[in-house]
Amino acid sequence: MAGQPDGGFFPRSGPLPPALHHGSVTPSFLPGHGIAILPADGLLLGFFLVLFLQYRHRVRRRRKAWQLLCQLIARHQHTLAQRQQACLTENHYGVVDKQRWHRELDYFCQSILLTCLMQENLADIWPSLRRRTLRRISRVVKILLKHNRTSPPPAAAGSSTTPRQFTATMDPLDYERFCAGLLRQAGWQARTTPPGADQGMDIIAEQSGVRLVIQCKLYGRPVGNKAVQEIFTARQHRQAQYAAVVSNAGYTRPARQLAHATGVHLLHHSQLSTLGLMDLQPQPDLFHP
Questions:
Q1: End-to-end CA separation in angstroms for the chain
Q2: What is the distance between the alpha carbons of residues 82 and 80, in angstroms, rounded to a whole number?
Q3: CA 184, CA 40: separation in Å to the nearest integer?
Q4: What is the pTM for the complete model shown?
Q5: What DSSP element (H or E) covers 257?
Q6: DSSP category for residue 171
Q7: Contact indicator for 9, 34 with CB cutoff of 8 Å
Q8: 79-86: which pairs have CB atoms within 8 A and are 24 or more residues apart?
Q9: 120-155 pLDDT tens trace
Q10: pLDDT for 183-199, tens place per residue?
Q11: DSSP letter (8 states) at residue 121
């Protein structure tokens, strides 16, 4: 009916309806519209506005946390791939202990990812991103390892006898030459020692005046602590700054204990092509007694 309010709409001019004219509540009108907003409506709008702002703030913090996690995974992707290869090796009974890799992932998440999130006051976002983060790590490591398998490292210049890639059927001497070639690719001056006269070391490598002695172990089972003892003695004999055992397999618990006590590095051969002096600096204790 003309001149009568329709729902929440009132005419722009004219007297207020009796119910409002004689009441104690005076509505306000949106500029240019005939829409009346009662005080109760303002409170409701304010409530939804607060909810919206909180939601937008959380979305922005979640996006920032995810970007930070992706950057950290990309920064450590090669180390993650190497650690997965080292952890997912068969034990004496031919069984792969996946718990070692799970413990490695937990350590990485707690010490690297969560620590950085805490520094940015984003630690409360971690529980909602944990599963997504683990899936991304798995995908990144899988792609990187696949690329490494399809792109073997080139042989060192002038060394036609250096094996180009690792095979389980190579003999120990070929494995030593293979490891030396990987070190040369990383910028080391590496040479193998004569068989039978190595005094516990198979490779001597030098870079920027720093000497590294290495014992290579081509094994089908985890390496024991005897190799750690021998290379530790060789480091003292050769007055080297660093010593390492390199293997295609993992290491036993006693070997890791002794290596931590003596400062000997336990490496997988996939780590050698990118091994730098910074990688030989003391690392956080990954061994939990």
A1: 86
A2: 5
A3: 76
A4: 0.46
A5: helix 253-262
A6: -
A7: yes
A8: 80/108, 80/137, 80/140, 80/141, 81/141, 81/144, 81/145, 81/148, 81/270, 82/268, 82/270, 82/271, 84/141, 84/145, 85/145, 85/268, 85/270, 86/250, 86/268
A9: 899 999 999 999 999 999 999 888 777 765 554 444
A10: 999 999 999 887 665 56
A11: T
